Amino acid sequence: RVCGKITLIYIDPPFSTQGAFLSRTQQKAYEDTMAGGQYIEFLRERLILLHRLLADCGSIYLHLDEKMVFEMKLIMDEIFGSSNYRNLIVRKKCNPKNYTRKAYGNIADFILFYTKTNNYVWNRPVEVLSDESAKEYQYIEPGTGRRYMKVPIHAPGIRNGATGKPWRGMLPPPGKHWQYTPKRLDEMDARGEIFWSKNENPRRKVYLDDHSGVGVQDIWMDFRDAHNQNIRITGYPTEKNPDLLRRIIGASSNPGDLVLDCFAGSGTTLAIANEMQRNWIGVDSSPEALKTILA
């Protein structure tokens, strides 16, 4: 019933750590003992099935650490196609460590982001402009008090259409074209969106209050693991930060879509999907995980 209908899959499987994980109450959560080819085949078989379950507009996020992420990148290329690779997201998972061994502190893990096709759900996540970026909006418009910056109204490249024609008796600079048609520039000027210098050089006003934010990049610094922060958590090991899931679910699904996490663990994915009005399916083989999810 769900084959080809799942919009988003997020999985946080075992990382091949060769360890056993206990809950806060010292109950066995799961063992992470597979390594090498056995681990790769374990995940490969499941990723083949997940590819079938994913809708054509769907995305999958595979959360791993440095031990197996590069091997699984090759497997993901095989199953989902290298052309459907979108990002290797680097996440800061904890505060800096005071390492005594001869190595750099290990404070990151990784999320492989793939889609099934090139036509996928994408709600571009943005972050608020930093104070430093906001300083670029240094001009204040008389009458409205709106802060703005000045940007050119031309762009590189020669065009033979309307954007290569004169506007107000001026041609674009050599080797360039207007960013907008002369008709559109007239409309912008009528609205007061063009700044004219003393030398009659036009520039476009870009207003700070129109800025939707800066697109999120592929290094995420703000989603450290819950057990490294003074916040209330379920007690299940490897629980992920709820805000991490909010970003992923918000970016790659819409309300009413179906979200799957088949390494559900503490149930964070399911809880956030429910909060964000998505339908969801959670799967886990650990009785301790199921007890945590239902608690």
3D architecture notes:
With 295 residues, the protein is an alpha/beta fold. 24% of the residues lie in helices and 26% in strands. The protein has helices at 36-53, 69-80, 131-134, 182-190, 242-252, 268-275, 287-294; strands at residues 6-11, 19-22, 28-32, 54-64, 85-92, 108-115, 126-127, 139-140, 147-151, 154-156, 176-178, 194-196, 202-207, 214-215, 219-220, 258-261, 279-282. The strands form five sheets. The protein has a seven-stranded mixed sheet, sandwiched between helices. A four-stranded antiparallel sheet has the order 8-9-13-12. The radius of gyration is 25 Å and the shape is elongated. The two termini are 28 Å apart.
Total helical segments: 7
* Beta-strand segment tally: 17
How would you classify the helix and strand content by structural class?
alpha/beta
What is the percent of helical residues? Answer: 10-25%
Mean pLDDT: 90
* H and E order: EEEHEHEEEHEEEEHEEEEHEHEH
Which runs of at least 5 residues are low in confidence (pLDDT < 50)?
none
Beta-strand portion reads: 25-35%
Main β sheet profile: 7 strands, mixed
End-to-end distance: 28 Å
Largest sheet: spatial strand order: 15-5-6-4-1-16-17
Q: What is the molecular shape?
A: elongated
Q: What is the CA-atom radius of gyration, in angstroms?
A: 25 Å
Summarize this structure briefly:
This protein is of the alpha/beta class and 295 residues long. Helix content is 24%, strand content 26%.
